UniProtKB/TrEMBL annotation:
Belongs to the short-chain dehydrogenases/reductases (SDR) family. One of its GO terms (molecular function) is oxidoreductase activity. It comes from Streptomyces reniochalinae. InterPro entries: NAD(P)-bd_dom_sf (IPR036291), SDR_fam (IPR002347). This is SDR family NAD(P)-dependent oxidoreductase. Transmembrane segments: none annotated. PANTHER family: PHOSPHATIDYLINOSITOL-GLYCAN BIOSYNTHESIS CLASS F PROTEIN (PTHR43157:SF31), PHOSPHATIDYLINOSITOL-GLYCAN BIOSYNTHESIS CLASS F PROTEIN-RELATED (PTHR43157).
Length: 306
């Protein structure tokens, strides 16, 4: 039998920030960390859905009530990211799970003018990690886990067109944003190699969440939405199973820097295992160029050597 949530080590005394914790993989990740004793900050864009998620977590784990906190965070708005970091009272953050994301949406821009998938999935998390870095490095055993996707294989980044202004194909743009997650992890791991921080990545395979149907729902494509929901019921693994690679990367002993964990069976489903990874996500020069561009676009400089 493979690794399960029962194998999560005791997290007592650790503080975890989980983005997108109001539903799906993020909620399961926050709940299971809380179950093992962590203090969990549910970082959510929508206050109503965030409160519902926190209430649900407390219903399922009454003992975790004092250790579960909701804080608002919109990764598509750098002012919100900055406010979240400033208002977080903790002097130490032991674990940051960069989980929130959007998938295959029609073309749109964030509050700061970035293409929406690149802006939310990569730039928002790049800025958040940088703004929390001092508090992460105050932990004796910090980790940053960024949730990518097997669909990063759909596209390498185009450093000359990060905002897809020349052309936009929603699935390619999604793949590029997930490639950016892996390049970010690669560069972060290298820059912090002389510190205790472990930067790792994970992906859920095909897990049943509301992410798949969001685009069709936004555009009123009811038939496509029904197909996505049917696929979730018949083909996908549960959100509980999909969250296991993230939880493994976040808590398991021996997780390596710049590792990429996904489901064992064809990167689709099953217990956590090392995952297939495109060679372009390990390109040092590309990672450094993306890092420099991300610092310029977000205004967040990490202050660690390249």
């Amino acid at each position: 039998m493979g690794w399960t949530a029962r194998n999560i080590p005791d997290q007592s005394g650790r503080t975890a920030v989980v983005t997108g914790a109001n539903s799906g993989l993020g909620f399961v990740t926050a709940r299971e960390l809380a179950r093992r004793g962590a203090r969990v900050v549910l970082a959510c864009r929508d206050e109503e859905r965030g409160r519902w998620a926190r209430d649900r977590l407390v219903r399922e784990l009454p003992e975790a009530g004092p250790r579960a906190e909701l804080r608002l965070l919109d990764l598509g708005d750098l002012a919100s990211v900055s406010a979240f970091a400033k208002e977080l009272p903790d002097e130490r953050v032991d674990l940051l799970v960069n989980n929130a994301g959007v998938m295959a949406l029609p073309y749109g821009r964030t509050a700061d003018g970035f293409e929406r998938q690149f802006g939310v999935n990569h730039l928002g998390h790049f800025a958040l990690t940088g703004l929390l870095l001092d508090r992460l490095l105050a932990s004796p055993a910090p980790r940053v886990v960024t949730v990518s996707s097997a669909l990063h294989l759909l596209g390498n980044i185009d450093i000359t067109d990060l905002n897809s202004e020349r052309s936009y194909r929603r699935w390619v743009a999604y793949g590029r944003s997930k490639t950016a997650n892996l390049l970010f992890t690669h560069e972060l791991a290298g820059r912090l190699a002389d510190t205790p921080l472990i930067a790792a990545a994970a992906h859920p395979g095909y897990a049943a969440t509301n992410l798949q149907s969001a685009s069709a729902r936004m555009e009123g494509r009811r038939a496509a939405e029904r197909v996505m929901r049917l696929g979730n019921r018949l083909i996908a693994q549960s959100a509980e199973a999909g969250a296991l690679p993230t939880l493994y990367a976040a808590t398991a002993p021996g997780v390596g820097a710049d590792s990429f964990t996904g489901p064992r069976l064809a990167s689709w489903r099953g217990a956590p295992a090392p995952s297939l990874r495109a060679p372009w996500t390990l390109n040092d020069a590309a990672a450094q160029r993306l890092w420099a561009a991300s610092e310029e676009l977000t205004g967040v400089a990490y202050g660690v050597p390249s």
